[in-house]
């Protein structure tokens, strides 16, 4: 897990993703910077978003930029880090990640390559693989 208290990336560093930037501003930035807008109309802002696409399309850059714009702490974990050899180690890492996020609130937790964790279920004998299938 990597913690970046102040990412340097900005929206200006991102080219060609105007629609996605606008959506991120509405779904992530606005609730963090102006929660009263949501409270005034009685709606709960989203607690998370999923950025998906092929590698190299700017997902990580976009997440870092919104963290920078909101002054939120940016926590990046690669999905494969959550898969551990011994039963119980993966959930411990997830708990630790969210403990750190809460300690450094507001935080943006970015799980890169989540497909390493959210794989298709199949019969296996490895403890780590059995754990992620639960």
Automatic annotation (TrEMBL):
Q: Name one Pfam family in it.
A: AAA
Q: Which residues form the AAA+ ATPase domain?
A: 45-134
Question: Which superkingdom?
Answer: Eukaryota
Question: Which InterPro entries does the record cross-reference, listed alphabetically?
Answer: 26S_Proteasome_ATPase (IPR050221), AAA+_ATPase (IPR003593), ATPase_AAA_core (IPR003959), P-loop_NTPase (IPR027417)
UniProt keywords, alphabetically: ATP-binding, Nucleotide-binding
- GO terms for molecular function, please? ATP binding; ATP hydrolysis activity
Q: Which residues form the signal peptide?
A: none
- The answer to whether the entry has keyword Cell membrane is no
Question: Would you identify the family this protein belongs to, as annotated?
Answer: Belongs to the AAA ATPase family.
Question: Per its record, how is this protein called by name?
Answer: AAA+ ATPase domain-containing protein
Instruction: State the organism of origin.
Output: Pyrodinium bahamense
């Amino acid at each position: 897990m990597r913690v970046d208290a102040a990412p340097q990336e900005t929206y200006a560093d991102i080219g060609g993703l105007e629609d996605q930037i606008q959506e991120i501003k509405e779904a992530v930035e606005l609730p963090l910077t102006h929660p009263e807008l949501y409270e005034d109309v009685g709606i709960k802002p989203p607690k998370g978003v999923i950025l998906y696409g092929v590698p190299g399309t700017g997902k990580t850059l976009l997440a870092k930029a919104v963290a920078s714009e909101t002054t939120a702490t940016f926590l990046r974990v690669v999905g494969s880090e959550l898969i551990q050899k011994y039963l119980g180690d993966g959930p411990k890492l997830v708990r630790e990640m969210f403990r750190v996020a809460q300690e450094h609130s507001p935080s943006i937790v970015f799980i890169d390559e989540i497909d390493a964790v959210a794989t298709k279920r199949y019969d296996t004998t490895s403890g780590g693989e059995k754990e992620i299938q639960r």
